Amino acid sequence: MIPVQIFLLILSEIFLPEFVGDYSGHTVNGNKIQFQCQDAVVLVEWCTRDIVKVSLFPDGNVQPDTSFVVIHEACSPVSFTVEDTEDSIWVKSSGVHIGCQKRPFRISFYNSMEQLILRERPAGGLGWCENQRYAYFNQTGDEHFYGFGERTIDFDKKGHDFSSCNTAVFGYSGPLETMNINIPFFCSTKGYGLYFDNTYPGYFDMGSADPDVYWCRADGGRMIYYFIYGGDFKGILERYTWLTGRQPLPPRWALGYLQSKYGYQTQTEAEAIVDSMRAKRFPCDAIILDLYWYKHMGDLWWDFENWPDPQQMISDFLDRGIKTVLIQEPYILEISRNYSVAYDLGIFGRDEGGTQMLLQDFWMGPAGLLDLTDPSAQSWWWALHIPLIDQGVSGWWTDLGEPELHPDNMVHYLGPSAKVHNIFNLLWSKTIFEGYENYYPEKRLFNLTRSGFAGMQRYSTFPWSGDVASSFGGLEVQIPMLLGMGMSAVAYHNSDIGGFVGYTSPELYIRWLQYGTFCPVTRAHGVGQPQEPWACGEEAERICRRYIQLRYMLLPYIYTYAYQNHTRGIPLARPLVMEYPDDPEVYNLASEYLFGDLLLVAPVTREGMTTKSVYLPQGEWVCYWSDSCYSGAQTVIVNAGLEILPLFVKKGAIIP
């Protein structure tokens, strides 16, 4: 019998990646410089003076690529010089410089002042092992990392490792490394960002195994990454969203209060909710209807038994300033009126033999997964939206798009499930967005969605954090997610106010709504108990009304930062490290944040708290409630009674 240690050593030798080897030559063609190495070709391309694309071709066969995410494939000419020495090659633009060590071939990135920013690991930079692709980089002890999409672990991902595969989660209340939205992009305190342009699931180790190294693995496709130098976080996000697209301006109503529940089951119930909202003097801009509005999932049409006159209902709501938003899913139940139509069109996901798959174990009953990577499926599905929009439907709620149930052996129009899994919801969002562009160009799209990928922001998506537990633990982890998504260029992250599953106490509802008031989207939702702001008693009703009214008072302020996000890619909710990058106290601070750049918000996320410890950064800060003034660069203990969300205004600010 082979000893365990020797067996593990053999395995490690078998599965160690190969690396590119020594440099043997290079050629220059326009913005591109191609490096021939001993065991591979590395192609370096300047997209702009500050964005450099690096592609690995292990077999030496250079092929053009098509990105689902990057929108600026055609680049303007960028001038650079090439200096060839015995040991290295220097390629210098007016922005980023790169230094290429020849033996073995390794790339380092410098800014225009020739300060080292990032270096591939000397022991191996770009590598491969069978279908997997790798990239290894050195990191320094004072470097910190932000982004990667939706995760409830630390805001600073330094020292963490995690997979990158969109995964549906249910009833969570604590740290989760992998969730519904994985975005292979991050920002570093060293002034750069990296975007890995690969749709396959993969893995990131940000110094967990070796504190001096971080690395990325993709489980298929090519290793292509973009080095983005911005100098600071705002500069990085501005350049990254130039590369991948920026969020369109939202409809103004989407920034107000939105009321949802799983679910309003009849027209009578929905009308009663709207009546109560107005009678109780709660500002509200939309009611969101869950899966009871249709008869069977996949119908994408009304159940007229329970909704006898939806067009009149929608019209009446609009007259009262209330928009109607409808849920949809990519699964079509076998009993749906649309199943046989879609099956005859051949637009469901298939097995490896080419047969359309009926998913017997789907939680609502046997169903097909609409192949939204197929242009035929996209066109057919979009056409079903048109009569509903013409009725007056104002927005959409796209659910289960991870996809929630996605067999490994399913094959799609664009390839195997592994290739399309992470971008399935992205292509679904694209389908709806382009439908609006073509048919309703005067309308701004609101798409509340549960999943996505890099570039999702350009399709007017408003992601929520999925099926969170109704608990203070569930509330507490929302803030690192909100900030991490913002640092991933997705600015409108939000959550189910009150939590989705479990018992919502009056205290929890109040605290969650206080936090939701200062989120990019303010939306109550849950299952099993009423989720309206008057449902938890008179005290909660009074406090919640005050905060929702405050939200509406702040709409000019909020809309200002929505416009800034639209034009520059900078999020509305900002980690303190974005504005105060030299303050070590804020590197991993995720219990408070800036809303815009003038309001500091410190939500109460622990049960029974009446005071809260708040770190105030450099400057002078005024308590919104008491007008007390505090000097920054210190931690203060402030009142956090049930009616109080600790809220500070930057001294001298004018808040419209």
What is this structure, in a nutshell?
This protein has 656 residues and is of the alpha+beta class.
**Residue fraction in strands:** 25-35%
Task: Tell the overall outline.
Answer: globular
Assign the structural class, choosing from mainly alpha, mainly beta, alpha/beta, alpha+beta, or little secondary structure. alpha+beta
Number of helices: 14
- Our Rg estimate from Cα atoms comes to 26 Å
Largest pleated sheet: 8 strands, antiparallel
Question: Would you identify the regions where 5 or more consecutive residues have pLDDT less than 50?
Answer: 4-14
Query: Could you give the distance between the termini?
Result: 75 Å
The total count of strands amounts to 40
Would you mind describing this structure in some detail?
There is one protein chain. This protein has 656 residues and is α+β, with helices and mostly antiparallel strands. An 8-stranded antiparallel sheet has the order 2-3-4-5-20-17-16-13. Strands 30-29-26-23-22-21-32 form a 7-stranded parallel sheet. Helix 11 (506-517) packs parallel to helix 12 (538-553). It is globular and about 80 Å long. It starts with a helix and ends in a 6-residue tail after the last strand. The relative contact order is 0.10. The model is unreliable at 4-14 (pLDDT under 50).
